[in-house]
């Protein structure tokens, strides 16, 4: 037997595994690195985050990714070069992190690497009847494995697509195993570039739990912060606070069939980008809005669409605990709108209160998915969870890359 298969077999049998989860999201702010200790699998999964950091991307790296990011026309050679480049870079960054944490790579069982989404195209969005749902992540896992010397799982989304899903959101799997709490209706709200939430009902019914994207989180705010402030984001919503919400523009922004579509659904910056905002401005005659008003309106747009999506699952007479994660939870204007828009039956906190730092939650998710792929197999709980084709006993997400 190949020794590396033997090694993987042994890792699968361990009572607990040390897994580095990597996430590079739609905000392109940096690489999230979470060293997780994971015991058990499926509903018995127990996670402790031993170390977490976000390694900021340099302006040069952001520009290299933006050259192909969410664009319909790109330089294909550049995409080809970026695939191994990012894989190698992510591997080097993992090595640097482990060194700074004093953890030898030999003491880490697996790396779980999301890679960088460069294009997301669910059928509802691309509209080509003869093509399936599609999504593309780069930063090839073989390069991560070769750089780190650690068995790496990557490219988690393709199996979901292969079984009829949109390849996202995958958060449902991790959230259900890690955060379900019988007796409490929980809403796990992640506000990254794109916002999504997982509904975890108090009876933990696997047929009811699901995750869905709601639309933009920070992606539009960041795009205009770069333009108006020459900053990566509108820190603490300072510009938004100075502006007035423009109702005509807000109404125009909300005119997209995505918002009325049934759950679960996914989207990305391929749809919600500056061209989308400009079209809404033209349609509503608000092209000359001052920057602060535009930022205030876009912030409200994100929060209204999040709150309206969440409201669809709220039942009268029930209490709900909303646990926030992702960079948007640090924006006080976003969180103030949410508190105002959602009913009093909702209480608000961060996943930090559940033992998982909100900034680390998505990186942890991929560590949990890798754990499940190697040692579990419980990633099936009802057909609602991701529009997977019915009758599938479970899907194992992630491809294995051996270091040599
Ligand atoms: N203090 C702050 N004030 C305002 N916004 C903030 C603050 N801190 C973080 N953010 C926002 O959070 C973003 C980063 O969020 P995060 O890392 O969760 O996104 P991501 O993982 O890249 O996105 P996605 O989940 O869509 O893939 C920043 O780009 C910024 O918009
Ligand atoms: C295609 C893709 O990369 N989607 C991301 C993105 O970022 C947030 C939202 O859009 C979510 O659908 C997804 O990531 C999380 C981790 C998920 O799959 O649950």
Describe this structure in words.
The chain is of the alpha/beta class. The chain has two domains: 208 residues, 2-Layer Sandwich (Nucleotidyltransferase, domain 5); 183 residues, Nucleotidyltransferase, domain 5 (2-Layer Sandwich). It is 38% helix and 21% strand. It contains 15 helices and twelve strands. The strands form two sheets. Strands 1, 2, 3, 4, 5, 6 and 12 form a seven-stranded mixed sheet that branches. Helix 14 links the parallel strand 10 and strand 11. The protein is globular. The protein starts with a helix and ends with a strand. The relative contact order is 0.17. The model has no long low-confidence stretch (mean pLDDT 95). The protein binds adenosine-5'-triphosphate and ligand AH0. It comes from Rudanella paleaurantiibacter. Pathway: Amino-sugar metabolism; 1,6-anhydro-N-acetylmuramate degradation; Cell wall biogenesis; peptidoglycan recycling. One of its GO terms (molecular function) is phosphotransferase activity, alcohol group as acceptor.
Keywords:
single chain; alpha/beta; Nucleotidyltransferase, domain 5; 2 domains; 7-stranded mixed β-sheet; 15 helices; 12 strands; globular; binds ligand AH0; Anhydro_N_Ac-Mur_kinase; EC 2.7.1.170; nucleotide-binding
Question: What composes the largest sheet?
Answer: 7 strands, mixed
**CATH C-level label of the largest domain:** Alpha Beta
CATH-defined superfamily of the largest domain: ATPase, nucleotide binding domain
Computed Rg: 21 Å
Separation of the first and last Cα atoms = 15 Å
* Strand percent estimate: 15-25%
| Envelope shape | globular
> What is the count of structural domains?
2
| Fraction of residues in helix | 25-40%
State the total count of DSSP E strands: 12
User: Could you spell the SSE succession in H and E letters?
Assistant: HEEEHHEHEHEHHEEEHHHHHHEHEHE
Q: In CATH terms, what is the fold-level topology of the largest domain?
A: Nucleotidyltransferase, domain 5
